[in-house]
């Protein structure tokens, strides 16, 4: 490792639970819970305005939540003994324009009690050794992103929290970032939480994703699980010769069931086991019972089509012609 130590950083797990934040009348984050494991890249994915930045700011103790908590191995950010050596963050990329990237890192190191020699190590790690001697004011957005990442790495933290770090990078930069984040997690055992509004980017970078819409958790799981549609509660399709009675039984049990024109009953936020058990208890005959196979693309497509209106527990709005790539910040 660049820090000169041979052992990797100690593994630290992030746990977010019941996180809630309202700004005026806007519920930016609502009862959000998820975990981020060491040794893997977790993508925090959601359309613009889904509450990603607000969540990350709460995780980093920059905003006080109305309810809930975010902890690093059980300790909130504000109570960490050595925050800079525990969590490295990239939220905004603002630097003193007249200062070189290297000087920025040296000033930051001194303030954080880190040996200044570390500045050159992290510059090298992000490929800014030469550019590091030039004024940061002349940096491209991609170079500023690299410098921000270098700043986050100064304390050799086991945890990295990055808000849209791929923003402004050219294709080559994106490829580099992807490999770098995976290396930090897979080879060095760090816990990497990285937000993005682009599914394609997260699919190629992350091992797991936490998907949010309208401040709520929509899904979390490994890319493989989510791609296969084998994720817990979702949309269940069920057919019965007694469709109306089935809807009444399921609704009576608190499930969101609706009957379509074709007689097929759709149940949202349930598993086939939930639906089967309720139908059995209500003595309703079933002819077909299956989970709708919503792949990751379709799920995210619906989410971005619905944008802020999407609500996790409710029926997803009908998909319209919106591509996940089309979203921009
Ligand atoms: N300080 C604030 N005051 C008022 N509303 C806010 C504030 N910060 C965020 N919001 C609102 O909270 C919601 C979530 O915003 P947030 O920036 O967290 O979303 P995001 O997923 O990061 O989106 P983006 O990628 O567009 O930044 C939005 O409706 C936003 O307008």
TrEMBL record:
InterPro entries per the record?
Answer: AAA+_ATPase, ABC_transporter-like_ATP-bd, ABC_transporter-like_CS, P-loop_NTPase
Q: Is Nucleotide-binding there in the keyword field? A: yes
Q: Where does the ABC transporter domain start and stop, copy by copy?
A: 14-239
Q: Which UniProt keywords apply?
A: ATP-binding, Nucleotide-binding, Transport
Cleavable signal peptide: none
Q: PROSITE patterns, alphabetically?
A: ABC_TRANSPORTER_1, ABC_TRANSPORTER_2
Record-linked PANTHER family: ABC TRANSPORTER, ATP-BINDING PROTEIN
**Protein name stated in the entry:** ABC-2 type transport system ATP-binding protein
This protein's species is Geodermatophilus obscurus
């Amino acid at each position: 490792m660049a820090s000169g130590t041979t052992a990797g950083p100690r593994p630290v797990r992030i746990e977010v639970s019941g996180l809630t934040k309202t700004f005026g009348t806007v519920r930016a984050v609502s009862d959000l819970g998820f975990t981020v494991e060491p040794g893997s890249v977790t993508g925090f994915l959601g359309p613009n305005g889904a509450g990603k930045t607000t969540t990350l700011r709460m995780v980093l103790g920059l905003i006080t939540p109305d309810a809930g908590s975010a902890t690093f191995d059980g300790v909130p950010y504000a109570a960490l003994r050595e925050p800079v050596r525990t969590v490295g963050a990239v939220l905004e990329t603002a630097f003193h324009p007249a200062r070189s990237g290297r000087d920025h890192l040296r000033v930051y190191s001194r303030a954080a009690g880190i040996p200044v020699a570390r500045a050159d190590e992290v510059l090298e790690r992000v490929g800014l050794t030469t550019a590091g001697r030039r004024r940061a004011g002349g940096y491209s957005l991609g170079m500023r992103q690299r410098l921000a990442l270098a700043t986050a790495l100064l304390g050799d933290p086991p945890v990295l929290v990055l808000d849209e770090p791929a923003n402004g990078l050219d294709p080559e930069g994106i490829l580099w970032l992807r490999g770098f984040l995976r290396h930090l997690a897979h080879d060095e055992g760090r816990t990497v939480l990285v937000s993005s509004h682009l599914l394609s980017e997260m699919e190629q970078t992350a091992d797991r994703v936490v998907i949010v819409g309208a401040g709520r958790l929509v899904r979390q799981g490994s890319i493989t699980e989510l791609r296969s549609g084998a994720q817990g509660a979702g949309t269940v399709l069920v057919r019965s010769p007694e469709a109306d009675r089935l809807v009444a039984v399921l609704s009576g049990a608190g499930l969101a069931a609706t009957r379509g024109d074709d007689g097929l009953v759709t149940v949202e936020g349930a598993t086939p086991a939930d639906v089967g058990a309720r139908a059995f208890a209500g003595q309703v005959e079933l002819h077909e019972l299956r989970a709708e196979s919503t792949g990751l693309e379709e799920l995210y497509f619906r989410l971005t089509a619905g944008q802020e209106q999407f609500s996790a527990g409710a029926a997803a709005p009908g998909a319209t012609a919106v591509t996940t790539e089309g979203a921009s910040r």
